[in-house]
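Q: Predict the assembly, please.
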Amino acid sequence: MTNTSSHVELVTVPCLRDNYAFLVHNHTTGDTALIDAPEASPIAVELARRNWRLTDILLTHHHDDHVGGLAALRGDARVIGAKADAHRLPPLDLAVAEGDLLQICGQTTHVIDVPGHTVGHIAFHMPDAGFAFTGDSLMALGCGRLFEGTPAQMWESLQKLRALPGETQICSGHEYTESNARFAVSLDPDNPDLTLRMKAIETARAAGQPTVPSGLEDERRTNPFLRADDAGLKAHLGLQNLPDDEVFAQIRASKDKF
Ligand code: ZN
Ligand code: FE
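A: Predicted assembly structure:
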């Protein structure tokens, strides 16, 4: 569950029933960032085990399974979240919006507005490390449910994330990959990349291993929510005459019923 990138280490922390939080640590400066705070205890255990202290906490959106552990963890860490949702997030030390650049653990970090699951949902991209923290927007073989935004908004959000470098690790908020994979295969049974990925996911889950983070290049080839503009998939679904955002809307609606 540990990946070392150029200057920082990434730790994936399972929380609650199927959530993930992430720790990013710079071994030179000692800075440690937490992305999302589903619950305090598993995160506190990982910090204590490594003797790390939180300097920053980044929040992707206001849902309780992403902020519920914050109060117990924040200490004197700087808490960063979306300006648009400051009224319903825990108290923020820094309120940010699309295009803002942050320095987190020595990494230049871009704020990307990704509404859809909620209207104030943001993602954080660390291009030098190759990490994108996407919360409940882009997920492994899936995307978040549309609680507040429109399908067109989520489709636009996903296209921004899809445009990041292919080697980006997508650090998303939940382990929903196995059920996402069953849905993806039902839409796209002849996609050989998806068939292979499905096998790898089943093997990982049978061994109790996380399938998150996932590689963006894999998502581009296999995640049906990133492929609403793929001519082959549109034709297979009989939707070749619909605009991409409406194809996306139909794929999202079928997943809700799957
Ligand atoms: Zn959520
Ligand atoms: Fe969530």
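The mean pLDDT is 96. The longest strand covers residues 8-15.
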